[in-house]
Amino acid sequence: MKKLKVLLTTAKWKLMCIESPKERMKMEEVSKELLSIKIAFLVQRRTSSHAVEEDDDGEGIGVRVLWVLVRHDGSAPLSLPCLTVLEAQAPGLDVLTLLCGFKLDILDFDTNQFGGVLPIPVGNLSTQLTELYFGSNEISRTIPVTLGNLVNLIALGMEYNLFIGLIPTIFKKFQKIQLLALNGNRLSGEIPTSIGNLTQLFKLDLDENRLEGSIPPSLGNCQNLQILDISQNNLSGFIPAHLIGLSSFSILLNLSHNSFTGKLPFEVGNLKKINQLDISENNLFGEIPSSIGNCLSLEYLSLQGNSFEGSLPSTLAFLKGLKFLDVSRNNLSGSIPKVLEKLPSLKKLNLSFNDIECEVPTEGVFKNASAISVIGNTKLCGGVAQLMLPPCPVEVIKPTKSLSFKLKIAITIVVIFFLLFSFILFLIGGKNQKGIHLHWAQQ
Question: Which of 143, 315, 418, 432 is most buried by a 10 A CB count?
Answer without folding.
Answer: 143
